[in-house]
Specification:
It comes from Streptomyces jeddahensis. The chain is mostly helical. The chain has helices spanning about 20-50, 65-90, 95-110, 115-135; strands at about 1-5, 15-20. Helix content is about 65%, strand content about 5%. A two-stranded antiparallel sheet has the order 1-2.
């Protein structure tokens, strides 16, 4: 069993038990956030630079220009990458921000479905895993 001294209790010398599984899932979520953010940046650049890369579906309810979607994906990708790196450093705000950004990414990828359906579905599933991993309980059950 691994122990972790929380920042608020460091002066008191009390340690909280952190499950190795939880630490592993958090690290996995951080890796997925970093790589997913970098890939979102590349998707954004592709949509901004060359609108012919993606198929345009006329009559879609959530119609934006591909350049607009490119900027949305690129900005979201940069912020997700930063939050993923912050998860590795143990920043206390990174878990909550990671959950919120994964939720925003799910929404963005749902709306992006007509342009890249397989990629969007894969990222929606990955974002769901990230939310699950970051919201899992932090303490081991007492025996």
């Amino acid at each position: 069993m691994a122990t972790h001294v929380s920042g608020a209790r460091r002066g008191q010398g009390r340690a909280e038990a952190v499950s190795p599984w939880v630490a592993g899932w958090t690290a996995a979520a951080a890796v997925l956030m970093v790589f997913g953010g970098i890939m979102a940046i590349f998707v954004g650049i592709a949509a901004i630079a060359n609108d012919n890369v993606f198929i345009v579906n006329d009559g879609f309810v959530y119609a934006f220009s591909l350049t607009g979607w490119g900027w949305i994906h690129m900005i979201l990708g940069v912020v997700i990458t930063i939050a993923g790196v912050a998860l590795f450093t143990g920043a206390p705000w990174a878990r909550a921000v990671g959950v919120a950004l994964a939720g925003l990414s799910m929404i963005a990828n749902f709306i992006w479905l007509p342009y890249a359906p397989v990629w969007s579905i894969v990222l929606i599933v990955v974002d769901g895993f990230i939310i699950w991993a970051l919201c899992s309980p932090r303490r081991e059950p007492s025996t």
